[in-house]
Amino acid sequence: MAFAIGYAGGDWDRAGERRLDTAWLAAEIAAARCRIVPVWRDRNLVSGLPGAAPRAAFLNSEAARALLQDPAAGAILLGVADGGPVFALDLSERDEAEAAFGLGGFAEIRGFGSLLPPGEAAMLAAARGLCHWHRAHRFCGACGHPTESREAGHARVCANPACGRSHYPRLDPAVIMLVESVDPAGRPVCLLAHNARFPGNVFSTLAGFVEIGETLEQAVRREVLEEVGCVVGEVSYRASQPWPFPSSIMLGFRARAAYAPLTPDAVEVSDARWFTLADLAAAAEWEEEGAPLRLPRRDSIARFLIEGWRAEHA
Ligand SMILES: [Zn+2]
Predict the structure, then answer these.
(1) Domain count across the chain
(2) Residue 287 domain-assigned?
């Protein structure tokens, strides 16, 4: 029973020192060992779907050349993996079937990512996030002129000589927290909530975006107070999850609170309760529709936080 965090397996060499090395980039993208992760309108190329064992499908540089006059121009260097360079390439302007090269189909990664090897899931998610960022930043936010890709796709520079501003990929940090307490009977309990957007009877940890000018700990306390009226004390960091859908990173925390009735805000959170270990032992998996209590997906950081708490009390 594994509870690895999804999309967290991206341990390839990101080769940051190569991003300005134009000779190396040109040679590598032409090399036979080059692999390209195509992205088509936020979808990734995958083979083996429908099925239980899908795999990422990569284009080789020959395929990329057939699609683009100068594949290096739009390619984003993801890094070096298994001895060869890996690039992401946005083919959104192409015909979908043409961009797939007969290697598979384009699909939304959140529908199959948990079935991929961890490194492939992280690589496809990173490609999706970077391609999304490029499409959303084609114009300079300062002066409105077009921007151009630089640094092997890790920056965009305003083409207006009077501006010339550099723009870099941005992440939207979000905190996600398991709040723990002890109930009046002396039992350990954790706070899980049903968000109005969740499927029926799924209860998970609270989460929310960090606001400008706020520490992560302040964001944890504010979100818990806003969403369920619970005052949090000690906050400690546990783990993170890349979440480039389109541009977040989830920062996971444990938080302590005094036991008190919960008051869901009824906007985002429709129900919130303190759960005992026995409650969780009786809970069903996310996929088990109709069960009276369902836990979040096994590859989510929410589930990682819940299982970490359970393990401490086992
Ligand atoms: Zn500009």
Answers:
(1) 2
(2) yes
